[in-house]
Amino acid sequence: MKVVLFCGGYGMRMRNGPADDVPKPMQLVGPRPLLWHVMRYYAHFGHTEFILCLGYGARHIKDFFLTYTETASNDFVLRDGRVELLSTDISDWSITFVHTGIESPIGERLRRVREHVAGEEMFLANYADVLTDAPLDVMIGNLAESDAGASMMVVPPQSSFHCVEFRDGSNRVAGISSASRLPLWENAGYFVLRQEIFDHIPENGDLVEDGCAALAEKDRLIAYPYRGFWQPADTFKERAALDAAYESGARPWMLWDQPSTIPAGVR
User: pTM surpassing 0.90?
Assistant: First the structure.
């Protein structure tokens, strides 16, 4: 299945200043950027046709792949001055680079690559800045077995703040609980989509607030609730946590470096 990755936003919370034009998906986790980790996740499940929706800082993404160095993340033999790779990351990948505008919202970026997924019964989409170990094949299978127009992964609220409940008609506190324990779910940024999604995204519209919301109103949107590993990189603190996890060897999202994790029957 083709994978549409939205990697053209400003990423303001990750920038060091006006001169820093590196897009958020290009922030490093270990020796490779977030975008690479997301792509390796999809490739692990056999999905290696990528469509990159570029915008702000597009040159950094283009340069990374045009000058890609396999030796940074693969074992190799140096013999007679020549490099012989023992494994490879991206040799079987197809990557389409599409400039979808600097200011375009997510839905408009998707609209601008519509021709590249034309004819696909289903395709995948992702914000390119969130890592997970969720079973992608199960998510895809759930939509394939339904008549819905789209599926989105959802996770419990990630806020570390505590929520306070008041007693009726007073300022007395009835209880305090962690946000993650509330009966709420957040958009996790992993989507499985059918062509129907394009019927509900207007010009300069949003994928979730317009497209998914319209499908929900028609009872044509399903969710995949997930309580396993899911880590965004919206801030320096979150990105630093991922980088520290990588350095410590605790890398649950790197399924491609672990023993087979795809359950029998869903390959």
Answer: no
